[in-house]
Design goal:
120 residues; alpha+beta; Sufe protein. Chain: A; globular
């Protein structure tokens, strides 16, 4: 893992963006990775066809928490249809690292949680 991307992941893990809960939200979901125990809950506020705010909470490894932090930053201001098209490769591009299959599950937990929240 390059030191630049390692620093970005550690920064988002230690100082997560959009971490906490929304007092008012329109969509919410939670998911967990039974393999390693990572857990996430995500809440969205969609207003006038735009993702106005996103917050996440939970616990897990640096990859799962940094992935959630990076994804929430990316989602704000997008419309739900645009956000629905975000896939595995997009999320991995945000992380900027190659991951082993076990770590890939950690990284994709945020995308799974977000997708479930959009359907709620």
């Amino acid at each position: 893992m390059s030191s630049l991307y390692q620093a970005i992941i550690l920064d988002h893990y230690r100082n997560p963006r959009h971490h906490g809960t929304l007092a008012r939200h329109t969509h919410a979901a939670n998911a967990h990775n039974p393999t390693c125990g990572d857990r996430l809950e995500m809440q969205l506020l969609i207003k006038d066809g735009i993702i106005e705010d996103v917050m996440f909470s939970g616990s897990g490894c640096a990859i799962s928490q940094a992935s959630a932090s990076l994804l929430t930053e990316f989602l704000i201001g997008k419309n739900p249809e645009e956000a629905r098209r975000i896939g595995k490769d997009d999320l991995l591009a945000l992380l900027g690292v190659d991951l082993s299959p076990n770590r890939l599950k950690c990284a994709l937990l945020s995308l799974e949680t977000f997708t479930k929240a959009l359907k709620s």
